[in-house]
Automatic annotation (TrEMBL):
<protein>
    <recommendedName>
        <fullName>N-acetyltransferase domain-containing protein</fullName>
    </recommendedName>
</protein>
<dbReference type="InterPro" id="IPR016181">
    <property type="entry name" value="Acyl_CoA_acyltransferase"/>
</dbReference>
<feature type="domain" description="N-acetyltransferase">
    <location>
        <begin position="147"/>
        <end position="283"/>
    </location>
</feature>
<dbReference type="Pfam" id="PF00583">
    <property type="entry name" value="Acetyltransf_1"/>
</dbReference>
<dbReference type="GO" id="GO:0016747">
    <property type="term" value="F:acyltransferase activity, transferring groups other than amino-acyl groups"/>
</dbReference>
<dbReference type="InterPro" id="IPR000182">
    <property type="entry name" value="GNAT_dom"/>
</dbReference>
């Protein structure tokens, strides 16, 4: 096995984009974060990427791609299924790098296998933060309900930070400062949207991580007092249609498999399952 280590996210993305885009929806998280890291490198911002690697088999084929962000190790399969030896090589490289791996996110069963091996080699206990499913949508089949989609304005950012903190404290364990930073970034990049009904802001969603053919819909949140009214569904449907109208081929969306209701709603909207994914945390 051969492991290639990259010091530049730009070089990593250039050399591996074609392989990643063979499964673009499945790899949308890695593609989107790598592109964000490239943009940060260009402007001298605080780096999102701590490291990135490609594992090759004896034939020189890419079998495993790894991107370590400040939050998680993002995992992608290459042109063929990685062997146990490839996973061993990846773990050895990560250990040699001496970089912190606090979590892993990627498709199943590949990520399950790598997480189990990491737990064995490091004695860091793994727990599942979320069982996920990745969906893609190419046509919105369910139209939004009453209300309208609006882009975030400066006066809405404190509320958006409150909602993002409430959302992220459950899904990602983010701090209030991190929530405010995410909201500001979303506003600056014109990615943050709300559903407005009769002058009230009742739900939120974000269209982010653009790839060659898609954008990912995320940060879908409705405060408790406005839930069970279909506002999040309307917000996601309208935002998904807007992404398609901008010329993207499809939208990507991650769901929590422990919530069958939302999974059913998104499928009725036109989202089609791509694969299952899992988010592990290590302690």
């Amino acid at each position: 096995m051969n492991v290639i280590s990259y010091k530049s996210s730009a070089v990593f993305l250039t050399e591996n984009r074609e392989v990643l885009e063979n499964r673009e929806a499945e790899n949308s998280l890695l593609l989107g974060l790598a592109q964000l890291a490239v943009d940060q490198e260009k402007t001298g911002q605080e780096p999102l990427a701590l490291g990135s690697w490609r594992v090759e088999n004896e034939a020189g084929e890419s079998v495993l791609l790894l991107f370590l962000s400040t939050k998680n190790l993002i995992i992608a399969c290459g042109t063929s299924t990685p062997s146990k030896g490839a996973l061993e090589s990846a773990v050895a490289q990560l250990l040699n790098s001496d970089l912190p791996v606090s979590g892993m996110v990627g498709p199943r069963p590949l990520t399950d296998e790598l997480a189990a091996l990491w737990e064995t080699r490091t004695s860091h206990q793994k727990t599942i933060a979320m069982n996920q499913r990745i969906y893609e949508l190419r046509k919105v089949k369910r139209l939004p309900g009453m209300g309208r989609l609006i882009q975030a304005e400066p006066s809405m950012l404190p509320m958006a930070a409150d909602w993002t903190f409430a959302f992220g404290s459950v899904t990602e364990g983010i701090t209030r400062d991190e929530a405010e930073k995410l909201v500001q970034q979303g506003y600056d990049r014109k990615q943050l949207y709300f559903w407005e009904l009769e002058g009230r802001i009742v739900s939120m969603a974000k269209a982010a991580r653009p790839t060659t053919h898609s954008m990912t819909i995320g940060l879908v949140y409705t405060p408790p007092e406005h839930r069970n009214n279909g506002y999040a569904s309307s917000c996601v449907a309208a935002l998904s249609q807007q992404v398609l109208n901008q010329g993207f081929h499809y939208c990507v969306l991650y769901t929590d498999l422990s919530n069958p209701t939302s999974n059913h709603i998104y499928q009725d909207m036109g989202y089609v399952p791509v694969c299952d994914s899992v988010h592990y945390r290590f302690s």
